[in-house]
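Hey,
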Amino acid sequence: MNDWKEIITADPEVMVGKPVIAGTRLTVEFIVERLADGWTEDELLQNYPGLTREQVHACLAYAAEMLSEVQMSSSRRRSRRSLRATIR
């Protein structure tokens, strides 16, 4: 699942702008936290009957992409600091 953009939305009027599964109040954060707590995908689907596997996978794809962007941004900042230190 690479195209989470059709499933994950963010609206300042819904859950304070946190990314959510479109049409729900289930945040990506909530889904990822449940999985991190040891819930299985099947347990999520049983406890939230409107939730689909595709939506769970979209949450994970969104989280992975956001982490990748944060890591790349952090790496660029370190490179700029290193470059500035070299120039001095």
